[in-house]
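Why run this: before we spend reagent on co-expression, it is cheaper to look at a predicted model of the complex and decide which construct boundaries make sense. The entries below are exactly what would go into the expression plan.
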Amino acid sequence: MPRYHLMETNMIKQKYIELIRVKPDKKIHLKDYDTGWAQTDDFKEVGKDKVKERANEVLQQNLTDLTQVQQLLYADDRYSLLIVFQAMDAAGKDGTIKHVMSGVNPQGCQVFSFKKPSDEDLDHNFLWRYMKSLPERGRIGIFNRSYYEDVLVVKVHPELLKNLPDGKKGKSFWENRYEDINAFEHHLHRNGTVILKFFLNVSKKEQKERFMERLERPEKNWKFSTADLAERGHWNDYMDVYEDAINATSTDWAPWYIIPADNKWATRALVADIITSTLQDLDLKFPELTETQLKVLAEARKTLEAE
Ligand code: AMP
Ligand code: MG
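The model came back. Tokens follow.
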């Protein structure tokens, strides 16, 4: 078998996916995860060009498969899929969503981008605004940022915590939020929602390059925000809160995947592969018609033929 068969025909080797899925009982350190393409010695041996070529093949195959399996998800109408994207700025959330979902029927898919909460949002419990946007059965719901911001940006900037009684901001505040998130996700899982969570792991160096590109290319200027630059100044704090959140909330029912994000082709291939294979592993089926319904169809056919 040629060496470059590190990925099976239309899937990335399960072994590698297992490496980037965070196990509930393990404590991870983000610095142990490669942000580039050279994840394992196998990859290094094969070389960047070959890995990239295979990643693009894997992506194309998955996009075709995803179109089919989404149709089945919709027809089956029992499960929904919630996909959470979290990352530092310029890690590629928007581009990944755009590419991976390009073959998906828009009727069965919704994307919600969560920005700073409104006054109305802040007047409710922190999960309220997200609950209102959950996918219906048969559909895929994408959260571009999510309730995780409430244990990420808010943990880095605790002054954002508003309207809470002082007594509620005690020592175990963040632990309680992780617990609430786990309970919320468990509840969804028990009710037929499949949950996938992707942390797009970009390096500080690559973020700088992408910010520079936004400054240098006029058609990308609109993407640049000085607020993003300010958040970059808190890079280490962000890595700490991401690590804490991922360690506290990667569960069997809602696992985190740490996706290398310095190369867009790697990010997209992995995300597409995980989404597609997760849906393919469900016991989805087209609804079966009852005897009576089949008889009705036969009658309808006769009526049309007799016209
Ligand atoms: P962007 O996704 O780049 O348009 O930026 C959205 C901004 O909204 C980011 O700076 C987030 O950190 C911020 N944001 C999202 N959710 C929350 C939240 N729950 N609390 C405070 N800020 C948030
Ligand atoms: Mg931004």
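The two ends are 61 Å apart (CA to CA). The chain has one domain: 3-305. Bring this page to Monday's planning discussion.
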